[in-house]
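Pasting as-is:
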Amino acid sequence: MNKHEVKALLEKFDAGNCSEEELAMLESWYITWRNEEPLKIESTVADRSVERIWARLQENEENKSVKLWPGKLIWWASAAAVFIVMGIGFYFYKNQHAAPYANDIAPGSNKAYLILADGSTISLSDAKAGLNIQDNQLHYNDGTQVKTGSKDLSLLEKGITINTPRGGTYQISLQDGTRVWLNAASSLTYHKGLNKRGERIVTLNGEAYFEVAKDKIHPFIVQSKKQRVEVLGTHFNISNYDDDSTARTTLLEGSVKINETMLKPGQQSVITGNQLKVVPANIELAMAWKKEDFIFEGEDFKTTMRKIGRWYDVDIEYAPGVREDIELGGWISRKSKLSEVLEKIEQVGNVHFKVEGRRIIVEK
């Protein structure tokens, strides 16, 4: 296997999605690697992979109730050993300290509400992970019915908007089988029927990951502030927040057309002002939020801080003299408390934070 195939398999393994055949391939590769010159993998990808592997090994050691399928623990150790032999360092499992802030803030969670065509709202359960829209019925992904009170669900025919607040995320299953994951501070407006051109169309503000149900006759359209994305059936992520200067669409599989420009898997479109360019995608960075991670490498510091602000529902302020080109590295789970996230950034970013209520002041 080449290095790209190895990376792909290790990522599947990290997610626990390897088939028996793929496990055998990894075993064969590991034996070959151990006996021959090691296959080099880009350090940034390897760093993040071994950190996740190591973290989950520690979790399994601490929680013996977690059940692993046969041989999986051995494979975690083998994969970690491979990377350690490669000389990869660990950023975030050293120097664990107590939270330095008096009033800590919990991470975001499942929060969303619906807005019907007449402006009325329906709060979705924080205890549920996702919403299923079928005909004039609203159910959670576990099959239980959404409590709508006296709301007129015939209004679903006229369109529905799903909003996630700052500190919220939610999954939506549309009637055609398309699945959408909304990030914090985002909204998706959905019309059940087709438009006059026979298109399935939604409007997005913020960030979402789409797995679009295939339908060659009826294209799926995502309309947002700076772009129009047309697909037939594919997996992609769109980030298009009002407070970001760029709109980014990252394609994982299939193909999409963005403002008449075609993307291939592994590519990302970047729209700044009226200019669109296509660049190689950093898939791991683009998909980090959906995998419940922050990755602090590969983007500018203020973009990272805006993501933290949305997820923890905090405002970010910058003291005079704070550099904009601060370089960060490593990752941390989005399930961490705010203090843990800020502490990790301080460890690697030569920057300091002061927290006052729900306000973070960035200092030199």
